[in-house]
Amino acid sequence: MKYVPLGASGLGTSIYALGTATFGGSTDEAEAMKVLDAFVEAGGLLIDTADAYTDGRAEAIIGRWLHNQRAHVRERMLLSTKGGGYTTTATLNRWGNTRHNLTRALETSLRRLGVDCITLYQAHTWDPLTPLEETMRFLDDAVHAGKVRYAGLSNYTGWQLQKSVDLADTRALARPITYQAQYSLLCREIEWEIVEAGRANGLGLLAWSPLSGGLLSGKYAPDATPSGPARFADRAERGKMHDAYVDALYRGHATREGTWQLLKILGEIAAARNTTTAAVALAWVAARPGVSGVVLGVRNSRQLTDNLQARSITLSDDEMERLTEASAPRPAGYPYGSFGAMQRSRGI
Ligand SMILES: NC(=O)c1ccc[n+]([C@@H]2O[C@H](COP(=O)([O-])OP(=O)(O)OC[C@H]3O[C@@H](n4cnc5c(N)ncnc54)[C@H](OP(=O)(O)O)[C@@H]3O)[C@@H](O)[C@H]2O)c1
Q1: Residues in Cβ contact with 227 at an 8 Å cutoff, skipping those fewer than 6 apart
Q2: Tens digit of pLDDT for each residue in 151-196?
Q3: Is 346 helix (H, G, I), strand (E, B) or coil?
Q4: β-pairing, 12-14 with 3-5?
Q5: Rounded to whole angstroms, how far apart are CA atoms 249 and 76?
Q6: Is 53 a catalytic residue?
Q7: Domains (ranges, CATH) in the chain?
């Protein structure tokens, strides 16, 4: 396992982090325990969760797993959770980044996880209604109360990241160390601005959905879905909210021109290296500038073992270039496209 700094914090983390959004959903508790054991066995350090995942079941499963670990494992793990995001039980004031909601959410997360302190506590998403200072002060207070070690942000745009960091700096509040964003070979639009905003401020990027929900595992074809259970196949088990979310986040990628050509290239590289399509796709994310963690999502421990093959892959310059070129997002309009880049480069 490769270890990298978690943003500019001085903390070291495993480049492959473990996501847990499936725990208590498509991954039952017994399988989740196996996934967690395999992750630790492989040298993994950062476990990412959220109060919103499976209505708290994911955090509770992690808490029970942690409880059964020896002291040195408990002490070594980096726990990352989030508050403020939508849950299916969200009501008017049980959503958003108010002090009111985040206080409740953090206390609930600490209880479920069975810990006194969470390594990284993230605002799950931007809140347009709550004054930003209230949210940043909440995070700072949580750090000073010893309930949280570091603050992070998630699903923010470039200006939202910048404004948050500036506010933290000018008020001497805890400075966020990371931001989470969807980032994969099929979702690169954050490169237009958000990646730069993150790097300019020393925020580590925690890349979520690095396989675009499984599309980059290579198990889908243009006109067929996998025979076994799969996120984009077994839709009957989900409620309307989740279907809309899945559609909004990923479905467009499957129909985008170039996706299947990209998968063909991934398959060729994987075959030449005797590894899996997924492992190559993950290794590409891990090698991108500013990435502090590739947040793996799995249904079971077999998928985790497959995906952790990425640990031993360092893509050559040529392979990186092939993939980067084949996955280039549609040309960005002004001010992000070539005209804007030319204006900002001063031709140097
Ligand atoms: N900050 C945020 O707002 C946010 C949002 C989303 C996720 N996240 C975090 O990011 C983590 C990862 O997201 P994600 O689950 O969407 O990641 P992903 O890697 O894009 O997708 C994971 C899914 O792909 C399929 N898969 C993975 N490996 C496979 C393999 N080797 N062979 C075949 N299928 C495979 C599995 O689904 P099936 O088997 O069901 O097909 C698995 O659940 C989450 O757990 C969460 O911690 C954060």
Answers
A1: none
A2: 999 999 999 999 999 999 999 999 999 999 999 999 999 999 999 9
A3: coil
A4: antiparallel
A5: 33
A6: yes
A7: 3-345 (3.20.20.100)
With contact defined as beta carbons under 8 Å apart, do 292 and 7 qualify? Answer: yes
Catalytically annotated residue among 3, 16, 53, 250: 53
- DSSP letter, residue 291: E
Tokens representing 341 are 């880049």
Take atom 42 of ligand 1 and give the residue whose Cα is closest.
Answer: 298
- Residue 173 CA, chain-centre distance (Å), reads 24
Question: Ligand 1: distance of its center to the CA of 61 in Å?
Answer: 17
Q: pLDDT digit string (tens) for 17-71?
A: 999 999 999 999 999 999 999 999 999 999 999 999 999 999 999 999 999 999 9
Q: Across 128-255, where does the E strand assignment appear?
A: 148-154, 178-182, 204-208
Measuring from atom 43 of ligand 1, which residue has the nearest CA?
298
Q: What is the rounded distance in angstroms from the CA atom of residue 218 to the CA atom of residue 66?
A: 33
Cα(304) to centroid(ligand 1), Å: 10
